[in-house]
Glycoside hydrolase family 31 N-terminal domain-containing protein (Amphiprion ocellaris), 686 residues
Amino acid sequence: MKQSGSWPNDNFLQLCRGRYGAILPHTCATPLKYQIFRPSSIGADLCLHGFRNVYGLPEHSDDLRLRDTSEPYRLYNLDVFAYDLHSRLGLYGSVPLLVAHKPDRTLGVFWLNASETFVNVQQKTLLLKFLKCCIYSSVRPRTDVRWMSESGVIDCTVLLGPNPQQLFSQFAQLTGFQALPPLFALGYHQSRWNYDDEADVEAVDAGFNHHGIPYDVIWLDIEHTDGKRYFTWDPVCFPEPTRLQRRLEQKKRKLVVINDPHIKVDPDWSLYCEARDGGHFVKDREGQIYRGTCWPGDSSYLDFSSPETRSWYSGCFSLDKYKGSTSSLHVWNDMNEPSVFNGPEQTMPKDAVHSGGWEHRDLHNLYGFYQATVEGLITRSGGSERPFVLSRSFFAGSQKFGAIWTGDNVASWEYLKISLPMLLSLSLAGIAFCGADVGGFFQDPEPELLVRWYQAAALQPFFRGHSAKMMKRREPWLFGEEVTAAIRTAIQQSTLQNKHNTFTVDHQYMIGGALLVCPVTEPGVQEVEVLLPGSGEIWYNVHSAAAYRGGRTLSLPVTLNTVPVFQRGGSVICRSEGHFSCTADLQRLPISITVALNNQGVAAGELYLDDFHSFRYRDAKSFCLRRFDMRSGWLFCRAAGGEGTFDCDTVVQSVTVLGVKTKPSAVTVHVPGEELQHYHNLYYNS
């Protein structure tokens, strides 16, 4: 467009430079005219010399290692039901981070742009020739990456690593570190679209107790509301929500409810009127409140790009405003891509207008990122309690707010298998607190598939069973005692655990630096092959304590009740021991320490403890960090740092040392200020 008249003021310049990129003055006839260029696509090409293997760019239902693209990877947040497998099309969230890796170097490329983005990846091999007395040739790999975004400015950061740990730290310093969740959020979550009423919820809760299956959280989907009006309760099915939450809290369990960004158009509903009169809705291109269709029918969409809207929305979670809520109620943000049933590609039109005049095309992938639920829950507690929020949509930095899941998957072996590289890709992009719906959201899983999915998900950070309302009920005790026992074991083990040829492996993964997991993802399997990396490593089977050298592929028999897990030599891990019904019970249980010696006969590890629910670890340094070191036959336990002030009375029940060559004659325990204690009755298994 063109603007005539005097030079624009500073505010206008700032807006236009940020919005359009440049303003060009023209020396021409009076009056002066200034040309403002409308948004246009931007792009950049990068050559990654020496790199063959690249990763990242979630979210796609594809392999962990990015493939040579006949079609580009698309980053555009969309509501995609039962998404296609091995596809480069966009899903619910986007992180424009690409990670390149080789044995001696890791680097990353972060393309900060929230508009629709395409990424081409092309792998090439260069033949280099050198002439000096004679001809030498060298083959060198190269990966070419082309970034293309619909609008915005080029804001590209190259993360130099040089090793993976340093690169991930650099990215976290840019976008934020993973939020430390409350302990209950790491337990098992039971969900369904939808549990019918309060009696149904209490019956499911009692079922877990009756069958001795631990769980921490039960979830309510959209049907718990009064006519799909969020922040309300169905007066017939959920007439006493406070009482329901109190009864769950007595068992140290929590309730999670869904809360979506679309607001039912209802002039008789006070919350809708507040949002309308406060200017909190996205506008259409004509300046009127934008309307689209979602679960409530005719809906308007909150404009989270506005600080005023975020402040208003977070205030809606206060206990005096959200009637029927308590401090033990937590939140699930769904449909926040945003999903618009009658919109283009089932989302908001790109010419919808946000606060400040920004078109939706410019910030589409940031819509769910700015949904201010976490702020609301923190404010509700006076800033003292860690919140739990699950979001379907995400962008770079969403790890600061809580958990992410992979959306509307399907009950099939193929979806179980693809969930592993999808979650690994999210973790590489900084979003470590992630998971997939156990058993598949849509269709009914066969019993073997359900067990294997529980076993895989039990060793992933976010662990939730969820299914659609048209599917059969699938509480863990509905499939016979063998299945119930296998699921019980998987859940119990979940909460009790606190080189070149590996670059394309995405069916097994590490938990931290100590545990290697290889879930069974195919039917009827009686034996699996596990790649044990590192020719100088030792790996111990956590079930049998058998030791295996690294740098080899191991064939391991499995049954329906087993999943291969190995502890790396040189590590120390701690587990809680004893019976529990939810993660809150773990704080009163003793721990066992497993020391896995490496080839040099040494091992090290750490144990972190705090109150597991508040921000006192951050604000008052109320935490305990202990370091374990095994060397020269002595296991030392000492403070890993002088800052922690948390006073814990955790009891060590047992110490197991793997890799001892000969049986020791005695064990001596030394506690500062106390007499030495000698133990001679030792269990030794060669």
Remarks:
- The radius of gyration is 27 Å.
- The chain is about 20% helix and 30% strand.
